[in-house]
Amino acid sequence: MTGTTSASGPHLPRYYREPAELRTPVGFPNYKSTALRAPLRTPVDLAHRLTEVTGPVLGEDRVRPEDADLTLRNGGEAVGQRILVFGRVLDSDGRPVPDALVEVWQANASGRYRHAVDSFPGPLDPHFDGLGRVVTDSLGRYEFMTIKPGAYPWGNHHNAWRPAHIHFSLFGRAFTQRLVTQMYFPDDPLFGQDPIYNAIPAAARPRTISRYSLERTQDNWALAFEWDIVLRGTDQTPFETEDDGDVA
Amino acid sequence: MTVDPLDVPDVTEPYQPRSGQRGSGFLDGPFRLGPTPSATVGPYLAIGLTWPDGEWAAAEGSEGGFWIRGRVFDGAGEVVPDAMIETWQADPDGGFPSPEDPRGASSYPGFRGYARAQTITGEYQVFTLKPGGVPDGEGGLQAPHIDVSLFARGILDRVVTRIYFADEAEANAEDVVLRGLTDDQRSTLIAERTDDGYRLDFYLQGDRETVFFAV
Question: pTM for this structure?
C-alpha cells in the first residue's frame, strides 16, 4: 500500500467495518455462555492508526507440509469421510491475500475433540488430532485434506447439537483483519437450532457455508468443499474531515 | 456489427451460487465482497492455536524484556480459564516488523511484536519489550501501548483493547486515545508495575468492565 506523506504523517488505509446488521454480535442471548462473558458496554471507536493497520508476518516457518493433511497422523489413517477443503483468502476489495497463515481445528468423524474438556462419549481416533495449518499461495489459495467432522451435543439447551464445522483462524496483513470463524457444510439439518450459527445476521450466514465441488472431488478418494474467506478490505466511502477543503 | 441484446443463449446449467456470495448482478455501491462473519473460538481453541513460542513477543533474554501478566474475569467475577489473548505492538524505537508500515518494516533484533497466550493457568503471560512512541497521525506521538485481541468461548467476535503503562504518566496524559476516555475508563487500560514487569487484568463485564474498542 503506497502512502502519501503530509504534515500529519503518512496516509494510512482505513479498513472497512461491516454495519452491525451484517456482523456477528459479540453476545447472543440464545448462546448461554455469552451472558456472563460478552462485554455489555458499547465499544469505543478506535481510529485506524499505525498499530491497527500493521500486523505480524507469520508464515512458512510455522507450517510443515504434513500440516495440510489431517488424515495421516501418528503413523496411520484417520477414520471417516475424507474431504478436500479449499478456497481463497481475499479481502473485501476482491484482492487475494497471499502468504497468509490459516490455522484450522475440528472434531473427528464421531464429533469428538481431542481435548481434555470434551466429555462427549464419541470415540477418539488415534490417527486424528484435528489440527491443520497452511499458508496461502501467491493467489491467496489454500487447501487441506481432512475428515468430515461429526456433529456433537454441547448442552446449551435440550438436545443441542452443533452443525458439523471446522474452526478457522486467519491473520491478514493488519491487526484490523484478524478473523476467527467457523466453516459449515451445505444443507446441514442442524442449522435451525444452533445459536452460534443463528447469531450471525441472516444475510451474512451463507458466507459461512462451503460449497460442494464436483470439479475438485477426487475420484475414488475424497469429496471436495470450496470456501472463500473474505477479510476486511479498504473502506472506500468518503471520509469527511474538518480539513476536507484543503485536499485537492 | 451490432449485438442483439435479446439473443441470449439457452441456460443449460442450473444456477449455483458461489460460496455464499450472492447479489443482483448490478453494482449499487463500491465493489465489495461481504466479509466473512466471525464466530466464537469455542472451548477447544488449544487444539488449533497453541504455539510453543506463543508467549514470546520478544526473544528470551532480550535486553529490557519483561513479563506482562493478568487474568480475565467474567460478569460473575470468576476467572476465565479458556480465553486467549493476542498482543501486537511497536518495538522500542516505535517501528513495526510489518511490511504494512508505510515507514518500512522495522527489524529490531529478536522482536516479533506479536504474542499469543491462553489463560489455562488462570493467567495470561507475554514476554515483550516496552514499545516506543508511535506517531498518532495528528503530529504527536501515542503513548507506548499494546493492541490486544481477546477471544473466548461465549464471545462471538474478538474484543479489542489496549495495554498502557503506569510508569508512562506523562506520555499517557498526551495520548490521543486516552485523552478521549474518562478517568475510570482509562484506569482499565493501565498496567501496573510488578517485580518482573507489569500486570493488567481484563474485566469482560461489571463495574470495572474494561474499555473495549471498535476497530
Answer: 0.91
